[in-house]
Amino acid sequence: MDLIDPLEQALHAARALVLADLAAGAVAEADVVSLVEDSVVQRRWWVEQWPEGAEYVAGLVAQDVQDALLERYGRWPLCPVCGAGDPHALEVEPELGPDPHWVCHQAGVKVAAVGTLGPATGGMTSS
Ligand SMILES: [Zn+2]
Asked: What is the Å distance from ligand 1's center to 78 Cα?
């Protein structure tokens, strides 16, 4: 009797991935976590209408939280690749697809998969 709903599984995974990236940027405060919860609630409705979209949920939640943070706090996540110039945020690619990544359009690079921003930015020390 312990069947795990694949949609719930996708939503839980998306939540965990985005929270990990928020923690990497040290912005996982209580009210920020609630932004993630709000997005998960909305995307639960969305994915119930369109179950094939389950693997897109992580990228969508990341974009929802990014938009919500832009209104309240500013750009997130800041690009860790470009040392010079104006600070700018990474963007999720694909916007609607599986296996979402954070990319910097200015440098034209994939920075990290959604959920792995911490290791990606923490591991960039030069030797
Ligand atoms: Zn950049």
From this structure: 8
Give residue 86 CA to ligand 1 midpoint distance, Å: 9
125 — pLDDT class (breaks 50, 70, 90): very low
Domain membership flag for residue 16: yes
Residue 127 domain flag? no
Q: How far is the CA of 117 from the centre of ligand 1 (A)?
A: 14
Q: How many whole angstroms separate alpha carbon 65 and alpha carbon 38?
A: 9
Query: Which residue has better confidence, 54 or 3?
Result: 54
Q: What single letter denotes the amino acid at residue 84?
A: A
Number of domains in the chain: 1
pTM over 0.70: yes
**Domain-located, residue 19:** yes
